[in-house]
Design a protein that fits this description.
The complex is a heterodimer of chains A (300) and B (298). With 300 residues, chain A is mostly helical. Helices cover 72% and strands 1% of the residues of chain A. Chain A has a two-stranded antiparallel ribbon with strand order 1-2. In chain B, helix 3 packs across helix 6, helix 4 packs across helix 6 and helix 11 packs antiparallel against helix 12. The chains are: A mainly alpha (300), B mainly alpha (298).
Amino acid sequence: MSAVTSRPPRHEQRNVLPWLVMPALLMFLGFAVLPLVGVFALSFTTWDGIGAIHATGLTSWRKVLSDPGLPHALWVTFLVMAVSWAVQTPASILIGVFLAGRQRYRAVLGVVYFIPLMLSSAAIAIAYKALLNPNFGLGAGLDIDLLSQDWLGRPGLAFGVIIFVVSWQFVPFHSLIYQGGVQQIPKSLYEAAQLDGAGRVRQFFSITLPQLKYTIITSSTLMVVGSLTFFDLIFVLTEGGPGDATRVLALDMYKRGFQASLMGPASVIAVILVLVGLLLALLLRRLGGRDAGASQLEGV
Amino acid sequence: MTTTLPEQRRPQKSAPRERQPVSSRPRRRLNWLGGGAGWLWLIVVAVPLYWSFITSFKQQSNYYDSNPLVPSGDPTLDNYRMVVESDFLRYFLNSVVVTAGAVIPAVLVSFMAAYAIVRGWRMRFLRAVNGLFLMGLAIPLQATIIPIYLIIIKLHLYDNLLALILPSIAFAIPLSVLVLANFIRDVPKELFDSMRVDGATEWTTLWRLAAPLTRPAIVTVSIFNALTIWNGFLLPLVLTQSPEQRTLPLALWNFQGQYGVNVPAVLAAVVLTTLPVLILYAFGRRQLLSGLTAGFSR
């Protein structure tokens, strides 16, 4: 009897589940998928951001692809990506290994390390802008010429500052990932190595690093794909300047769209941004990454 | 003796007696290296924070006569007064409205979706939705900002806090569903079965069984989303215009543009706007940090 009475609700339940997913699905379709499709569509139009939208075929694409600004923006984006990866990865591994140690003082230092993770890019950029001010900043106050340069006014220096501030903001996050990775390495491996007489350095290179392979790929994917979306930080620090020295793709898109009112070409840049991101995520996945899917986290 | 008992630990350990100091010396050396890197990084992180904090209590007129790394002997709250008088309470409330208004619905709908996906895994439709959310993780917000701007204009929501809330919900959904579904999957099947035998509907099971059992995951996901949205800059920059609709990061940027030369005041604004998050950090550090790596730890 009871089996018979429990059947109708079960049938009813089957139909309920798809409805439970609807609110999330509709929100996601409306404000993420539709915009993604929309940006492809808008790249074939001309629009000033206020008036009517005109379909103009490949005009915007031709304009952008023949503009020397595009290869420059791609190059700067690539440089930021490569250099910030090369700086952040060794630092994050070193600090991650350091934090995975058992000593109490390391955990105490960890409390300070992770503070930058809580702050907004805007706040960090503004604090650094004040700190690096050649007349009123920290360097000027200490009266050290080397430190009181026009940090954000010279192309090479401005690029270096961006790499430094990016690292300052994101190394904590990646060392957190590495700390977790290190803690998952079986202790027995180290014990065996110790019995074989391998020193700490040897252990690091022949156990820790190889065991961290997947962690390195995950962290690198997040760094590389995330670096495509550095916007807030660069926008506040340099606005792409001096000149266009730090004008990365995301900034190029914003400036063309919302400052020069050329939404068509800006959409072309956005499409390129999406394609480059996908390409990089796929490439890194080929290298053996497990969850390349979570790749946009750093940029959000 | 030692060679006859190779399986025993002790003889093995003491056997390479000559190598023992060799192996322990590099260990100590690396600890110096690791420790050195650790303390160096502490300085790198702490000096800008410390400098920003102490400078925010100095007077604009004489702060650069003093040693920048020594706290003012005559601290002042004038900078903070100036910041508060620049309507920062309103911006703070705007940030609270946007964050709460986005995180609560986002986590709610994500939880329902995650539950449906786990429970209805046999249905092709739900697996397809799951695949869509997974792909959604790879959509960068920046690249979709122009169509979002267009949609918001068409909805007559430009310069309205709701314009910030709606896209924030959408972009919070993929990761939230992924993490929550992982946790719901861990709930033992027998518990669901016993609920069903008792005649409970999916709706009841969702709230009475799944929600309480996955509460830590819900908290974690909420924290991650809240931090992301609280610190968001691009959406307010593009989708709002009037000062009344500013959220904290945008207000900070505007304040800096207006009073850039007044370094202590700008830094007071930075300190004040980061204070709420830092207070949370002081109390719930573990939760916050685990929230940040929620997507990878599992």
